[in-house]
Design brief:
disordered N terminus; disordered C terminus; two-stranded antiparallel ribbon; five-stranded mixed β-sheet; Collagenase (Catalytic Domain)
């Protein structure tokens, strides 16, 4: 089951003045989270991944990135996955490089050979704006779950699509914002929609924030399904 991807707007947008709520108390920041399915697929609202169902694998299609760039971005992605793993107990494992196909109208990413998407797998692909026309202005990424069960509200697949020219620029000029972009995108794959407060990584304008906000942590943990796991307490907890 697919859902419209979440666009990441990094700079130059009026969204900063229209989305950000005035003032922020700790309680407001914690409560600042939503399901990516809200307003889209009612049966899947608050769907999430099951930590005890086994590892979640992920693969990368580097597109036109060089071998050294692939190595650098894979390491950056590893750290982004680690950020969410620490908050959720999900076991993310890199499965290697893979050629992928991008269905541009639906912004779907999957195996290039047409084979079915692997269960509990996340496909990450790098593409230029000349390939994905949806990459316009300051939109640098899209991501969403692609497989979800309505009965159990369990997500079992997803994709991340990153704009290559932004990677080539930000990798040297602003690497923190690039890693923050990856963390944000992965939040969509895990089932989170956009936040309203800039203290949370899921706020739609990505800066250089690398740590999850209290709302990100509370939100993604609320979405976990299928089992109970021991995970660290939220930021600031005793």
């Amino acid at each position: 089951m697919a859902v419209t991807a979440g666009a990441i707007i990094v700079t130059g947008s009026t969204l900063a003045t229209t989305v950000q709520a005035a003032g922020s108390t700790a309680e407001q920041v914690v409560a600042d989270h939503t399901s990516i399915y809200s307003g889209k697929i009612a049966e899947l609202v608050n769907a999430g991944w099951a930590p005890c169902a086994g590892p979640v694998t992920w693969s990368v299609d580097p597109g036109t990135l060089t071998a050294s760039q692939v190595s650098q971005e894979t390491a950056r992605l590893q750290r982004a996955f680690g950020t969410w793993s620490a908050a959720t107990g999900l076991d993310f494992r890199f499965a290697g490089l893979q050629t992928m196909a991008v269905d541009e109208p639906g912004l779907q990413v999957g195996p290039a050979d047409g084979s079915p998407a692997r269960p509990r797998h996340i496909y990450v692909a790098f593409r230029g704006s000349e390939v994905v026309p949806a990459f316009v202005n300051t939109v640098y990424g899209y991501a969403a779950p692609t497989l979800a069960d309505r009965a159990t509200r369990q997500i079992t697949g997803g994709y991340v699509l990153i704009r290559t020219d932004h990677v080539l620029t930000a990798a040297s000029s602003d690497p923190r914002s690039l890693r923050s972009l990856y963390v944000h995108e992965l939040g969509h794959v895990l089932g989170l929609g956009h936040a309203q407060r800039e203290e949370n990584v899921m706020y739609p304008i990505v800066t250089d924030q690398l740590q999850l906000g209290a709302g990100d942590v509370a939100g993604v943990r609320q979405l976990l399904t299928g089992c109970s796991v021991q995970i660290p307490g939220p930021p600031g907890a005793p």
